[in-house]
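Quick question, first post here. What does this chain look like in 3D?
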Amino acid sequence: MKKIISLCLSALFATAMLSACNDGGGGGTNSDGSISLKFNFQKGSRYKYIMKNHQSITQDIMGKSMTVGQDMDMESTYQVAGADGNNKKLTVTYDRIAMKSDNSAMKMAYDSDDSAHNDPMFKSLGNMVHKSFSMTVNDKGQIVALEGFENLMPNAGGNMPISDSSLRSMMQQSFYIYPDKPVKPGDTWSNNYSTSLGFMDLNTDNTFKLVSVSNGIAHVEMNSKISSRPSSNADMKDVKMELSGVQTGAIDIEIATGLMMGSTLNQQIKGTMDMREMKAPIQVNSDISIVGAREK
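> Answer (accepted):
Ran it through. Tokens below.
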């Protein structure tokens, strides 16, 4: 069960942090018709994001198939607490967290706004609501520093379900979406990173394409190739993963501010888990949507 909670929390942070954006002077249309997209929050700006993630995990063990369905909703606020040149310090606060998990053996649900749905197995989620941590991000979307994450779960001690380094790598994948030069419709750019999602340690190679520019909005599409790497999780030292997959997505970015107004992402991963010489096929499908807006 600990691994299930860890995976839930990891997926929660990873998808929640997909809401990368910027504000104030970071982007614009250049004289040659190209646009510049950068991460450039201005001090004092504040944003609200709503993320919805539907995930299905199917695993075959000893000839029996089990599917776990998970639905996660998160509402979060991003406040720009400070700025130092191209680096912006953000205060991140989770305002609402809701989750459902359903399989043939059990059903669990939690909603921080609904006391009737507060399964104790997800108590650690509720402990994070209305608490904050901070991170520093440069104009390229790279995570420079991460502070105060342990404040979300002060009683976890050494049993935090996710480490600072894992959270940093997951945030990196979400913020690291900007081109390193001005782009025109049809132009592409790429990057790659490594991340940890619960029991999965993955390498991801991304290709972004500016598809169109209309009414001040840049429409960007993304395609990625995913492959597994040796796990850094001590709990998984006896488990070998061989996974591969793809993800596709679309992001609408307001050119004048860099604000991510909306995004959709589909991820499909499949392969095998080798647990002490017993191989178990596994498949993970995820559909994620995010809507962002500036708070006035």
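The first helix runs from residue 2 to 16.
Residues 59 and 282 are 4 Å apart (CA to CA).
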